[in-house]
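lol ok so funny story. i was supposed to be doing the assay writeup but got distracted and ended up predicting the structure for this chain instead. priorities right. anyway since i did it might as well share w the group, maybe its usefull for someone
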Amino acid sequence: MLPNLENRLLRILVLLLPVLMGVLAGAASGIFILFFLVAVYTLSRSGNLGWQRLPALDQATVISLLVFVLIVLLGYMNAADTQQYWSRFERAVRAFGCVVILLFLIRDDHQLIPFLEKGVLVGSLLVFLAATEQVGALGRAGGAYNAILFGDFSAYLACAAAVAAYTNRGKPIYVAVFLIAVLLSGYASILSGTRGSWIGLYLGLSFVLLVSVFSQRRRFGIVGTTAFALSALALFTWACSLHPLISSRMSEATQTFLQFFSGGDPNTSVGYRLQMWGAAYDMWIANPLLGSGLGDYSRDLAEMIRLGQSSMNAHFGEAHSLYFEFLGTTGLLGFITLMAGMFVLPLLTFLGVGRGRGLLRLLDCPASLHGVCLVIAFSSFGISQNWLGRSSISSVFFLCLALFLAGVVREQSKDVIQEKGQGA
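and the output, tada:
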């Protein structure tokens, strides 16, 4: 593939990812697959994987992701429901695609993050329009999928827009436009009524605010930071006052949580989740090392209900928690490699651990700050939902993870060159 054609294709794919991921079903998965195919084609022609260019921490991340995929693959041996196994495997194997894309991106100086940020602007507007149109008819905005996925997509768009506003070195008008995008996509997430998404939204935006306050660059300054905080507060207040579903969802969560532990009806929205997590824990206790088998959660839960080992009066196909489901179905080995490869090691990479640089100085690197917010948002989403069981949102996570890890490697290479130049 010609270099110019390759660059244009990659930029278009990265631009379209945030634009379409919440409003067009299958778009994120299609973009991920196309990106993966380009990576495989280019690497196969070059014959050089560029492994030596990866710092030690990034190599550890790659190894953890590959071990996770291997454990998932070996999970076939103790999976009873093979149909569900292959469905789960098809999503989890995107971790391998992430590794291939990362190795591909570090070969050349692809400047793709600015195109992702431009797509975030358009995507924020589209999810806002979709949410305001749907919420009146459906009660909760669901975009092209359902309320949970739409809430996650919108929350992540808001976090990405906040990072773009902070790291933007252009005119103040550009910062203002990105802040508007934060409000639009954040409001769309609120209208989804997805409480798990709200956690990721709150933590991601709070982190960017903290960085903006304490960073030496002080991109927003005191006035800008205060205005941003007040705008966010006004957004939440406005949403609660105009849409009763927001306050009702929070009130429902509190009441059903207390009701579950006080001996009331356990079969409520929160009660179901607590019971599903407990069932996953029991599956792990029975098979601590390898779990009950990837894809077997639905089958095992149905069996527990039949035998009276659970008081649930409804059957669910997943544990509604990334952590509990993979702990129960892939055991301690799968859980540890998932946490290490997807969250812990990438977070250490983005924070610049072991590089001898100040934390806030490193966070001036757009790829690092984007990466931290990605980990914060998606690790929060995983508390109350198994998003790795959804091809669309897992595609977004793994493509963005490869994008930001490659960006950090590129920035680190520039630092090494500068240090050598100063030493000379």
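Residues 416-424 have pLDDT under 50 and may be disordered. Residues 46 and 107 are 10 Å apart (CA to CA).
back to the writeup now i swear
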